[in-house]
Structure formats: C-alpha cells, structure tokens
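Before relying on records like the one below, remember that each one covers exactly one chain. Contacts with other chains, cofactors or solvent are not represented anywhere in the record.
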Amino acid sequence: MLRIISDSTCDLSPELIRRYHIDIVPLYIELDGREFLDGVNITPDEIYLWSDAHKSTPRTAAIALESTEKLLRSYLDQGDDVLCFSISDSMSTTGNVFRMAVEHLHAQEHIRVFNSQNLSTGIGLQVLEAADMAEHGCSMTDILAHLESIRPRVRASFVVDTLTYLHRGGRCSSVTALLGSTLKLHPMIVVEDGAMKATKKYRGKLSSVVMNYVRDMEPQLLQAKPERVFITHSGCSDEIIDPVKAYLEGLGHFSEILITRAGCTVSSHCGPGTLGVLFIAGE
C-alpha cells in the first residue's frame, strides 16, 4: 500500500484528512520558551492573542526527526511505501528532516519526499492529487511524474487584512516596502518559485478587497483544473467567506469547492483576516 504523509502546513481540514487517509506531521510553534504542536495543542486564535500582546511573531520550527522516523518506520514494518509532502524548501527545513529520516532508515527505495515548493493548500492540492491516484492503484513512479507536471501550475495566492504579521515574520521581504504608505493596503501575496512575494495592492474594506481579488482571477479560474478549488482563510467571518463561495459556485466550473482554515504555522505568519483562493491551472 502507498501511504500519503504531509507536514501540517498543508492546511487540509480534519474531514479531508480522514477522507483520504492522510497522516499529518506537525511543525512546532514556540511561545515564551514553550513548544506547541501545530494543530495538536494550540490554535491560531491563541497565537493571535500572544502575538498582539507581545508585538512579535512566534518562532516556528520544522517537524521533529525522532517522531517522523517513528511514523515512517511503522509503515515500513507493514511493507508499505510512503510519499511525504513538505512545505517549500525555501521556507522551512521540514523537507530536509523528512530526507534525513529516510536516510537514517535506509529506506530510499520505499519512501520518497516531495518538495511542494508551496504552502498551505497549495500543498494540499498536490496531496489530494496524489491521494486520488493512490486510491486508483497508481504507482509511486506515475504519481511523482504527475506531481512534477502539476507543481508549477499550482496557483497559491491570498490577500491579507494586516501587513503586521508578514512584516514581523520576515518571510515576505517585499512587504517591507509597502509599510511606508499612509493608505491602508491589502496586498495580494503570491507564491512563485517556492517563495512569497507581494504583487497587486488593494485598498478599502476587507469584504470589498476579497471580492475584487477573486473577480480579478476569474479568467484563470475558468481555465483551472475543474476537480477542486480551495477557499483557505485564517479566521475570516462567514460574511467574508460566503460571497466568495457563492461567486465560485456561480462560475459553474468546479466540481468541489473546499473551505479550510489555515493552521497555526501559516496563520502565525499571515495574521487574522487572510483569505486565499487556491487552484491548479489548466494545461
């Protein structure tokens, strides 16, 4: 059997994780010298409270080598092959931890590590493509070839309500140049070549900004791979999310519109009020 594993930054909902039998390996969040596991014993809302009180972004750390090895060994002992997905190597050392675990287990023939070159459900889209193929009995070789073909076509972007968290975290250098503006900006952050950069800038209420962002993507959305599209947010209200879902439904293009909330690692860097529409571009 082929097992699918991803680090916790894939931001898949518990329902999707159960439905596709995916194992999640959590990253670490450090607050006041205490370590927490992403999605296990801390929530994004708790992180926001801490971050605002301390005027700082919590430190995040890669998955743990020991527990990763233990999980992988359990599958090897059952005779299974394993495909591991990691957040972009340029954003975290998580992929290297996966690779070190494989080396320690001398399991290169049975375990493969795939650098998603993405984050959040930009990873999740690739995980679900692999899970679909695995359910249909496809080989590791065929799945990896498919992933290589779709990876550059994953469109991951989002708009933020506040620049504060991205600036504190230092993960998106192009945000700094926007801070001097006297107008409240809501930049569109795009993942390209495994890294984040600020592109188009929106102004106004978040509800209007989000809808303008989605409308601007309509030509791409209508050409997207139709199986699924994600609405991923970091704690937006239904008043923000529902019009986006209705708009996507009105396009009549996607078989499945999935709504997920970003986990602790992604939320700690983008802050509350962030929303993205993520999909795979057509060939």
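The CA atoms of residues 160 and 274 lie 4 Å apart.
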